[in-house]
Amino acid sequence: MATRVSNKTAPGRDSKPLAVIALERLRNDIIQCKLPPGSKITEGALCDLYGFSKAPVRTALFKLSQEGLVRTVPRHGYVIAPITIKSVQDLFELRLVLEPALARMAVGKIDIDELKNLNVAPGSSKAEQAEMKFLAANRQFHLAIARASGNQKMLALMTQLLDDMAKLLHLGLFSSDWRAGSMLDVHRDQAQQHEDLIDAFTRGDPDSAADATRLHVEESRDLVMRALLSQGSLTVGRVALA
């Protein structure tokens, strides 16, 4: 357990405000399901768990509630946003409408070298830091395409959509099956789908870019749904289906 710190910044040369550190810790633990979906939390319990004082925890919870990762329960604290089959279906349906259109619009405008640099294979390491690094790079990969479309409204929607899906993507890509070494092919397929999309952009082919994007979203949806329906975590509370 971390030592409780009451000053405004954490010690060290590259110190950050405690509210930022608390936000990063809580967000990462929610995405990785260390704080289980559907579980009840309170400021006091989080202070005890992480060793923070109440002010940074309260600030972090406020931001996380704005992001939709936690829900406020009046007079009872907070609930980690549950994962439901309906919410997963809704999010992927929206991606299937939005993202192929963004890819089509980005053809001829996208920075190919940037996409290549952001195309990190998800299973390059089993370290938790590598998992979060992949999710961050994956987010930037898809946002680079949305940004190149030139449509700011669609970019804002895509940004929110990817934030909403971070926990789902982590669940699908880094499940217990992955830690047991049985998802190497799945991870290679994910990386190859990005390669196919980059190839379509390189050739300047809008139809291929849209098709490659659609296939990637469908494969990601199936991956998440399999993880939700097959993992033993369904019976121990890591994932709340409703």
Summarize the entry for a quick read.
By secondary structure, the chain is mainly alpha-helical. Helix content is 65%, strand content 4%.
Q: State Rg.
A: 19 Å
* Mean pLDDT figure: 82
Largest sheet: 3 strands, antiparallel
- Low-confidence spans: pLDDT under 50, at least 5 residues? 1-13, 232-242
CATH architecture of the largest domain: Up-down Bundle
Count of alpha and pi helical runs? 10
What would you call the shape?
elongated
Helix content: 55-70%
Which secondary-structure class do the elements indicate? Answer: mainly alpha
Rounded to the nearest angstrom, the distance between the terminal CA atoms is 32 Å
* Integer tally of domains: 2
Strand order of the largest sheet: 1-3-2
The count of β-strands is 3
Strand content is under 5%
Order of helices and strands: HEHHEEHHHHHHH
Looking at CATH, the homologous superfamily of the largest domain is: GntR ligand-binding domain-like
CATH class of the largest domain: Mainly Alpha
Instruction: Give me the CATH fold name of the largest domain.
Output: Four Helix Bundle (Hemerythrin (Met), subunit A)
